[in-house]
Amino acid sequence: AQKVTQAQTEISVVEKEDVTLDCVYETRDTTYYLFWYKQPPSGELVFLIRRNSFDEQNEISGRYSWNFQKSTSSFNFTITASQVVDSAVYFCALRAGGDDYKLSFGAGTTVTVRA
Amino acid sequence: DTGVSQDPRHKITKRGQNVTFRCDPISEHNRLYWYRQTLGQGPEFLTYFQNEAQLEKSRLLSDRFSAERPKGSFSTLEIQRTEQGDSAMYLCASSQSGSGYNEQFFGPGTRLTVL
């Protein structure tokens, strides 16, 4: 069974501060995929980033970066120099490899960026 | 590419009535998913289609729920004899097979309120 835990319920920052969102996952699969999605107030889930289980190289994409550590089963996500438009609920999700395509989501972290 | 669309965006119904939701996936995507999201929670998987075949159903999908994808394009989700506990956001997503990541792209959702 897959499980995703986002321990932070809410984070509030002032614009231009960095925000790091924590995600811890559980899976018995050796091959799996991790994702971060953003859900703004409009409600539509927007795909942000992805990582597979055999590539632990951390990356930066614009203001987004992620830190994947298999040893601690963590997939943390950072927004650098936050903006008001980053205010949203952020979800970490896990998918097993093979033919299992369903996503297992965490409960989400609400990020509020104040001007 | 117009993205995933869902109709209606909002539905208010009385307990015991039947409701039907429609999802139009991204045109070249052969996989289609339904999720349910209740307030303050992450989306939960309901069911998944590859082309017209329904390949997996969650235990959350009781006998009152039925989903179809008759021609491998759009899909419908019907809830019979609605209950107040069915009130939630119903999300549709689509993806294309052949990609290991199989990232799913979501529609805006249908918010159901059962009175």
Description:
- The complex is a heterodimer of chains A (115) and B (115).
- Chain A is mainly beta.
- Chain A contains no helices and twelve strands.
- In chain A, the strands form three sheets. In chain A, strands 2, 5, 6, 10, 11 and 12 form a six-stranded mixed β-sheet that branches. Chain A has a four-stranded antiparallel β-sheet with strand order 3-9-8-7, with no helix packed on it. In chain A, strands 1-4 form a two-stranded antiparallel sheet.
- In chain A, strand 5 and strand 6 (46-52) form a beta hairpin.
- The mean pLDDT of chain A is 92.
- Chain B has 115 residues and is mainly beta.
- Chain B has strands at 5-7, 10-13, 19-24, 31-37, 44-50, 53-57, 65-68, 75-79, 88-95, 105-106, 110-114.
- In chain B, strands 2, 4, 5, 6, 9, 10 and 11 form a seven-stranded mixed β-sheet that branches. In chain B, strands 1-3-8-7 form a four-stranded antiparallel β-sheet, with no helix packed on it.
- Chain A binds chain B through residues 4, 33, 35, 37, 42-47, 50, 52, 91, 93, 95, 97, 101-108, and chain B through 31, 33, 35, 40-45, 48, 56, 58, 89, 91, 93, 95, 100-109, 111.
Characterize this entry briefly:
Chain A has strands at 3-5, 10-14, 19-21, 24-26, 32-39, 46-52, 59-61, 64-69, 74-79, 88-96, 104-105, 109-114. Chain A is mostly beta strands and 115 residues long.
Give the low-pLDDT segments of chain B: none
Number of helices of chain A: 0
The radius of gyration over CA of chain B amounts to: 13 Å
Percentage beta strand of chain A: over 45%
Low-pLDDT regions of chain A: none
Largest sheet of chain A, if any? 6 strands, mixed
Number of helices of chain B: 0
Helix residue percentage of chain B: under 10%
Quick one: biggest sheet of chain B? 7 strands, mixed
Our measurement of the CA-to-CA distance between the termini of chain B, rounded to an integer number of angstroms, reads: 36 Å
- Please tell me the overall pLDDT of chain A: 92
SSE series of chain A: EEEEEEEEEEEE
Strand segment count of chain B: 11
Helix-strand string of chain B: EEEEEEEEEEE
Taking all Cα atoms into account, the compactness measure Rg of chain A is 14 Å
**Average pLDDT, all residues of chain B:** 93
Helix content of chain A: under 10%
| Largest interface, counted by CB within 8 Å of the partner chain's CB | A-B, 24 and 27 residues
N-C termini distance of chain A:
41 Å
Shape of chain B: globular
